[in-house]
Amino acid sequence: PFLDAMGRSGRLLVLGDNAGETVLDRLFLEYLPPGVSVTYAVRPGPVMNDAVLSDAERAGIGGFAVLIDTGLDAPTVDPSRMGTALGRAWATADAILAKGQGNLEGMAGCGDRRVFHSFVVKCRVISKLTGLPEGSAVFASRGSLIGGEDPCPSTSISARDAT
């Protein structure tokens, strides 16, 4: 379903997670079909261990994707408050890959069917939300992960509640 959402010449928006994962993200980007256009979004400044532009540049992601920042100085993306560049990339994406539990938390209430999540269940709150045991590694579509309708925006869960 993830590859089908992009097709062979679609647009993928990746919402990066932590600085260390940028190296693995570059490897992932190398294996995408050659016609896929990628935008890779990171935090505008340091927030915990989240990736920033310099991390993505050092990992070589700029050779595979257009680099932008989210416009949010939080360890998540909130679709109702994203920056201009991210808003444009979001609007034109065929598929959106939200990396990390923080992005899952901030996007709770976002029923956009283009969204796929990749993260590890790290706490009881997220275990309850997803129905998966703590420690589970997840790559799933938003609809199959949360289930049912989940219209944007919502305050059903926040980073404060989940940590």
Note the topology:
Layout (H helix, E strand, L loop, with lengths): L1 H5 L4 E5 L5 H10 L6 E6 L10 H6 L7 E4 L14 H9 L2 E5 L1 H6 L8 E6 L3 H7 L6 E5 H5 L12 H4 L1
Parallel strand pairs: 1-2, 1-4, 2-3, 4-5
Antiparallel strand pairs: 5-6
Walk me through the structure.
The structure is a single chain. Residues 148-163 have low confidence and may be disordered. This protein starts with a helix and ends with a helix. 36% of the residues are buried. It has helices at 2-6, 21-30, 53-58, 84-92, 101-106, 124-130, 142-146, 159-162, and strands spanning 11-15, 37-42, 66-69, 95-99, 115-120, 137-141. The chain is 32% helix and 19% strand. It is of the alpha/beta class. It contains 8 helices and 6 strands, in the order H-E-H-E-H-E-H-E-H-E-H-E-H-H. Strands 3-2-1-4-5-6 form a 6-stranded mixed sheet. It is globular.
Strand content: 15-25%
Question: Helicity, in percent?
Answer: 25-40%
Strand order of the largest sheet: 3-2-1-4-5-6
- Contiguous low-pLDDT stretches (5 residues minimum) are 148-163
Global outline: globular
Largest beta-sheet details: 6 strands, mixed
